[in-house]
Amino acid sequence: GKGAFSLVRSSLYSVQCVCFESKEVSHAMVQYAAGLPPESVVDVKGMVTVPDTPIKSATQCHVEVHVTSVHCVSKASAALPFQMEDACRPDAKDGESEEGDEALVRVGQDIRLDNRWIDLRTPANQSIFRIESWLGKLFRDYLHEAGFVELHSPKLIGGSSEGGADVFTLDYFGKPACLAMSPQLHKQMAAACSGFEKVFVTGPVFRAEDSNTRRHLCEFTGLDLEMTIVEHYDEVLVLFDELFRYIFDGINKHCKDELERVREQHPFEDLKYLTPTLRLTYAEGCQLLREAGVEQDDYEDLSTENEKKLGDIVKEKYDTDFFFMDQYPLSVRPFYTMPSPTNPKLSNSYDFFVRGQEILSGAQRIHDPELLVERAKAWDIDLEDLKGYIDSFRNGALPHGGGGIGLERVVMLFLDLKNIRKASWFPRDPKRISP
């Protein structure tokens, strides 16, 4: 015909372009524009005009471009793995289809991830990872202002990061080594033993856990920090409380457009959080569960199911999605966790939760080398693997504490995405190691 219509997209935003045959625009130009495959990269020149009615399919709905020339920079294959229109459809409600859309195509997770470079083009994904970028920036900004120094810890280590078994092992020039499952030992050395006092680490973390769940990855981005303690480990809790609220406030302030683009495809309720953040002891959390008819012993670890139930109880009782608990049983925490001075069965440790799922685990650490040796032996950990770590505390070490945050998990829960793979650029799980 004598006209061609197309939707041109750049990151989050789109505009309708129309190309009509005229004195300035040849019939060949119209045919050329009409024949370009979807997802091709183009340079467009034209006049911005106001349409008679808003263009509902475009984010810039009150303008359109009358094209005078179009140049194809990169032509997309005519056979795309899936259509962008299908990939942008809102999530179906659990157990039912959206009204009237039973026949509409929905793109499955595996197809999306197999072709992630295309899937990332959707406005929702563009927004998710811009929000994730802001989260990392806000984390760094707050800690820099608080006097922290960024540590770049090694990811290749001998033995295992924390004496655990869930590590990826490798041969290091004839010696056994592994990929770090956390920067734990090195951030302690830097903060408590090397005079830096306050350090943070951002970088990849590796877990060889065969967990095919919606909240686990084999590689994720860790946001870790460690700081010295002057009087009480509450100092660390106060910092984490302020840090998280600074991040949440910053995302809500700086990512308004992105939040709405995510909400259009993945509807969610805004995260509710209090100032200051709700704090419970582990025993108080267990008591809340028992009062709701849930079995939970004060000295046994919370199951994933009970964590979620506790999140629901807290939301109903305190109207908050965000809270933390401290004074966990010593038996369920890592060997380097400081025992409670008032109850040897408890520890100076804590977890933070969003929507009933843990986003941070941390504690005051043991800085006495003899107590470290005693605790490592109790865990049947090979002391030779920890020799350098334990020796670092023999030359004077400050009391200290910290914690580790999973970047993707925080994004998943803040946006209530239901699956952590939606918050990972190129997910790595037990069944996926490409692209």
TrEMBL record:
Substrates-to-products reaction catalysed: tRNA(Asp) + L-aspartate + ATP = L-aspartyl-tRNA(Asp) + AMP + diphosphate
Compartments where found: Cytoplasm
Family matches, as Pfam families: tRNA-synt_2
EC id: 6.1.1.12
Chief location of this protein within or outside the cell: cytoplasm
Domain of life: Eukaryota
Residue ranges annotated for the Aminoacyl-transfer RNA synthetases class-II family profile domain, each copy included: 129-435
InterPro entries associated with the record: Aa-tRNA-synt_II, aa-tRNA-synth_II, aa-tRNA-synth_II/BPL/LPL, Asp-tRNA_synthase_2, Asp/Asn-tRNA-synth_IIb, NA-bd_OB-fold
Single GO MF descriptor: ATP binding
This protein's UniProt keywords: Aminoacyl-tRNA synthetase, ATP-binding, Cytoplasm, Ligase, Nucleotide-binding, Protein biosynthesis
GO cellular component terms attached to this protein's record: aminoacyl-tRNA synthetase multienzyme complex; cytosol
An example Gene Ontology biological process: aspartyl-tRNA aminoacylation
Family from the record: Belongs to the class-II aminoacyl-tRNA synthetase family. Type 2 subfamily.
HAMAP family tied to this protein: Asp_tRNA_synth_type2 (MF_02075)
Protein name, entry field: aspartate--tRNA ligase
